[in-house]
Design a protein that fits this description.
Blueprint lengths: L18 H17 L7 E5 L15 E3 L5 H11 L4 E7 H7 L1 H10 L4 E6 L34 H8 L3 E6 L3 H13 L4 E6 L9 H7 E3 L8 H9 L9 E8 L5 H8 L2 H17 L1
Parallel strand pairs: 1-2, 1-3, 3-4, 4-6, 5-6, 7-8
Antiparallel strand pairs: 5-8
Helix pairs in contact: 1-6, 3-4, 4-5
The chain binds thiamine diphosphate, iron/sulfur cluster and magnesium ion.
Length: 283
Amino acid sequence: MNKDLGTYAPNTWCPGCGNFAILTAIKTVLKILSEEGLPLENIVLVSGIGCHAKIVDYVNVNSFYSIHGRVTPVAEAIKLANPKIKVIGFAGDGDAYGEGLEHLVFAAKRNIDITMIIHNNRVYGLTTGQYTPTSPLGFKGRSTPQGTVELPINPLELMLSSGASFIARAFSHGLELLKKIFKEAILHKGFSLVDVLQVCVTFYNMYEYYDKRVYELKEHNPKDFDSALKKIREWDYNSDASIALGIFYRKEIPTFEERVSEQLPQEQRARDLKIKEILKASL
Ligand SMILES: Cc1ncc(C[n+]2csc(CCOP(=O)(O)OP(=O)(O)O)c2C)c(N)n1
Ligand code: SF4
Ligand SMILES: [Mg+2]
């Protein structure tokens, strides 16, 4: 296996695309986690449809290409079928905050132990520049040549109110923080979401804009719901306010799969255990 977890698939992202940083960060983090004892075969990546989705072609671990808007339910199904798997979903903003939004809300609500990494370039990249739920008011793109006439959603506020137990924001220009946040999100027990401000150089080049405004969260208590809400509301994806990066909220609560397992009748749990032992012995 290629040591840096790369593959032979030709990379078709535009030069300068923020997806490259996400790719480098995730490969590094998975490598570190495997050195720390997480077998690579226990990791499954899931992607949607869009520029972001190609990431699973470029990382040499098991993966599943789903369809637009359905990264979350596929990731949830894999986790429920085999709770020992670390499932990491990669979704676009159109994908996760548009077509698949209801899945995200319910995954957060049930606190299923999956990690969702959102490549939030605030545009439909693959289909060449239409607006998404996080494009700012007045965004001019293929489908809105005169500018959008609606305000964006704040996905982090939505996640907080839906019950997500880990909420963070990262930026594709700043590898160290990206790696740190990805690692924390993957290790978190419960539903984790990282909204990555991933710059699309071709249809919405925001490098300069973000570079001037981002700062890293310090002296912030991520266990405190009210402080998290206050920080999350500081920037509404529309104003010119400063943009905080880091972990806004983190809470340890029982996961969906733990609660499901508790409800299983004793005989069924014993039978599942027996099947696992037989499978283990036959390997
Ligand atoms: C069910 C379905 N609806 C719509 C499409 C068309 N489609 C493909 S990619 C895409 C937008 C992708 O945007 P985003 O999720 O933000 O990903 P990006 O390309 O920006 O990474 C759309 C609308 C599709 N393939 N399937
Ligand atoms: S269109 Fe945008 S998001 Fe897609 S590869 Fe090019 S720069 Fe990246
Ligand atoms: Mg997008």
